[in-house]
Amino acid sequence: MNNKRTVQKGFTLIELMIVVAIIGILSAFAIPAYQNYTMKAHASEMLSASSAMKMSLGICLVNGETNCTSGNGGVPGAQDLGDFTVSAVAGVSGAATTIQAVIDAGQTKGRLVEGDTVTITPALTTAGVTWDITCVNGGTQTATEADWCPVN
């Protein structure tokens, strides 16, 4: 008489369901974090692309020029970089000229959409020029500016 047992190999249905549930819970946290990470990476690219404008605006301010907007005082004209445009714009009500990198109309940059803006504001001090970075949501983002705005 043959008393061989068949040994089953593999996972039970419950074990597989537990693994699927764990993966689902992890992805519920990972996907939004990754989306915010990619938005911040695109905003950081916009910030980096503003460096030439930032340097020339700083020189214009240190030299005491009165008009440091794009195309004046040695500051280059607005730069169209495909998905976004970088320009030096005059501040409202006599405020300082700022550098703005804005997603162009009809364009997207990852999850950044038309109107999303990275603004770099200079402050002329005795130590030189310091810069403050702010971001403005174009109005259609579900993420807040704090989620995607790069810091110095």
TrEMBL record:
Xref: SUPFAM superfamilies: Pili subunits (SSF54523)
Coiled coil: none
Superkingdom as given in the UniProt entry: Bacteria
Keywords on record: Fimbrium, Membrane, Methylation, Transmembrane, Transmembrane helix
InterPro entries documented for this protein: N_methyl_site, Pilin, Pilin-like
Transmembrane segment boundaries: 12-34
Pfam families: N_methyl (PF07963), Pilin (PF00114)
Family stated for the protein in its record: Belongs to the N-Me-Phe pilin family.
Name by which UniProt lists this protein: Prepilin-type N-terminal cleavage/methylation domain-containing protein
